[in-house]
Amino acid sequence: MSLICLDSICRRYEMGGETVHALRGVTLSIERGEYVAIMGPSGSGKSTLMNIIGCLDTPSSGTYVLNGNAVAEMDDNDLADIRNREIGFVFQTFNLLSRSTALRNVELPLIYAGVDIDERGDIARAALADVGLADRVEHRPDEMSGGQRQRVALARALVNKPSILLADEPTGNLDSKTGDEILALFDALHAKGNTLIVVTHEEDVARRARRIIRIRDGLVASDEAVS
Amino acid sequence: MSIITEIVEGVRISWEALRGNLMRSVLTTVGIVIGIVAVTLMATALEYLNTAFRDAISFLGTDVLYVDRNEWFVDSNRRFDRMQRREKITLAQVREVEEGLGNVRGVAPTVMHGVDGLRYGDRSTGMVLMIGTNDQFIITDGVALASGRFMTKAEAEANRDLCVIGADIAEKLFDKESPLGKRITAGDERLEVIGVFERRGSVLGGMSLDNQIVIPIQKMTRSFRGDPSCVIQVKVGDTGRIAETREELRGLMRKIRRIPPGGEDDFAINQQEALVGQFGKVSAIIATAGFFITGLSLFVGGIGIMNIMFVSVAERTQEIGVRKAIGARNRTVLMQFLIEAAAICLLGGIVAVIIARGLVEVARIYLPKVGMSWHVVLLALIVAIATGLISGFLPAWRAARMRPVDALRKD
To answer: B12: Cβ–Cβ under 8 A, 6 or more apart, which residues?
Structure first.
């Protein structure tokens, strides 16, 4: 069974009395260990698809099975637990808590997972060391560069050992050199067997993945391996 | 995630948030501070009133019944006039009570009489209260002697020229000299001082208990006040038997005063409790009015908290989205904002208690016995936290119910 199984996923919104069909029946599956890029112009529905894969949103119809869990029927609390355990998010704008240190930011998923206070610090420190920030543990986001912030976000995303790393335009706010560093980390993660899904509109970012899914008008327009 | 972790986490987050918006937090708490200061002062004032009142009436024994023509509390003038026409409680009736009443510690008739000036040599006092009574008075009134002795049964029943005087009188007439064995002049009578009462202080705002002179009841009726109506003090000696003794006394008095069955009592049996009850009614009214007013100021403060919490939730929508994305449940977010509101109010409450403490210190200059007790402090802090929880609930609920995708989208 695939890690991610989407079957005829539709998502409709009501906006100003009109129904917007963001997704019109997306069917796809992603295996464990894949490195997938999702591409598409703005308004194509790729963000909605990412939200649904990330359990931030639920489909209007269709079924979604994530790592054996039927997600579409879950309530808020179950979804929160699924996001906590199964998914690591990396956002374009990093979305770190600005008043908290790097360590606190990375500890947060552990707190929500109910990890003991004694173990939390060690696990979070190890996660920060893995992204090369062992010496930035007590720094706050405004004391770090964009690349460092995105690495903190990456450490936070990985600290609970999720099944999927879900990155939304991870290099969008970085210069090309720092962006490359982040993508190099992604390559390394993939090599270690992690499942990565990267949403992007940049062709050269997508080219780093092994499979590119293109979305247009709420449907899968193409789905092909990177040669 | 356990509830304790959630609380610890909530406190940490709210501390970060409060520090991040220090000025705003301080301004927000002003309303709460005012409200809690009002609550604290109100509770302190009420408590002071209660203890002051209890102090004031402590000269009335808790287990003493006072048989009198009048009730202490009369609700209409007409009723009062009717009481004034009741038959007197005579010494003969007192004797019948003494004989008829079983198991009590003491029975003493008292007759009060104002005397204008006692004299000794060239010294004199102002107006003093003269009490004619018997040997049992030392038991029923619970007074202690500083020196000398009290009258005996024989002395009380004979027309003897002796007296026991209060501390103020002793001081005024004798200064440092010992009054014992000296004769003082009251009206046309010369009375030998056989004892001096211990100092008792004053009650009910100024009436001195040390400005009293006690003489044998027979002396009182022969030389000062003929044919008086007595007040009989009955010391029960056991607080558990007060009600029982009261009934026994009532039956006895009805028999003595020949009241037909079904007839209304033409006497009253008063108790300290009646005063306490009456005072309780008054203080309940004061408390209700006071807490209504302080409640209003707290309400205004609470609205301020609610307002600022809505702002806080709106500002941190993104943060709420991130927290939810990485696994915070709705309840966790709810708790976080509730704790934040409670923490703001608790800080306000602490500041308020400190301010109120200062104000009480100032009040102490005029009312030396005023003090702020720890349970008033506790009450103030609990009220503060409760205000925070109540006024923070709606904003926190709104935060908790946000869909993560909507919260994240908002920049």
So the answer is: none
User: Residue A92: CB partners within 8 Å, gap ≥ 6?
Assistant: A168, A169, A170, A172, A173
Q: Which of residues 138-167 of A touch B (CB under 8 A)?
A: 156, 160
pLDDT band at residue B9 using 50, 70 and 90 as cut-offs: confident
Amino acid at A171: T
Pair A53, A206: CB distance under 8 Å: no
pLDDT at B335 over 80: yes
Give the whole-angstrom CA distance, residue B250 versus residue B273.
17
Q: Is A129 on the interface with B (CB under 8 A)?
A: no
Residue A111 touches chain B, beta carbons under 8 Å: yes
CA atoms within a 13 Å half-sphere pointing along the CA-CB vector of A212: 17
Give the helix, strand, coil percentages of chain A, each rounded to 5: 35, 30, 35
Q: Does any CB of chain B come closer than 8 Å to the CB of residue A114?
A: yes
Question: What is residue B203's predicted lDDT score, i.e. its pLDDT?
Answer: 67
Q: Enumerate the residues of chain A whose CB falls inside 8 A of the CB of residue B325.
A: 54, 56, 83, 89, 95
> Which residue, among A13, A55, A112, would best test binding to B if mutated, counting the most B CBs under 10 Å from its CB?
A112
CB contact under 8 A, A56 and B404: yes
**Digit-coded pLDDT (tens) for A99-131:** 889 999 999 999 999 888 889 999 999 999 999
Largest Cα span, chain B: 102
Local confidence band at B46 (pLDDT 50, 70, 90 cut-offs): confident
pLDDT given at position B225: 86
Question: Mean of the per-residue pLDDT values for chain B?
Answer: 87
Report the C-alpha gap between B171 and B164 in whole angstroms.
Answer: 13
Region A14-36 average pLDDT: 91
Interchain CB distance below 8 Å, A56 and B325: yes
pLDDT tens-digit profile of A53-102? 999 999 999 999 998 889 878 889 999 999 999 999 999 888 998 888 99
Between B275 and B164, the more confident residue is: B164
Give the type of residue at B300.
Answer: V
Up-side HSE of residue B217: CA atoms within 13 Å toward CB?
25
- Tell me the ipTM for this assembly: 0.92
B411 with A100: Cβ contact below 8 A: no
Beta strands in B259-322 (DSSP E): 268-271
User: What are the residues of chain B with a beta carbon less than 8 Å away from any beta carbon of chain A?
Assistant: 1-2, 5, 9, 16-17, 19-20, 318-319, 321-332, 403-405, 408, 411
Given the structure tokens 């995630």, which residue do they identify?
A: B1
Closest CA to B219 of B142, B297, B265, B158: B158
For an interface test with B, the pick among A71, A82, A99 (most B C-beta atoms closer than 10 Å) comes out as A99
Map out the domains of chain B as residue ranges: 3-56+277-409, 87-266
Of B322, B324, B331, the CB nearest to A97: B322
Average pLDDT over every residue of B253-272: 88
Q: By the CB < 8 Å criterion, does A77 face chain B?
A: yes
Nearest CA in chain B to A83: B327
Q: In this model, does residue B411 exceed pLDDT 70?
A: no
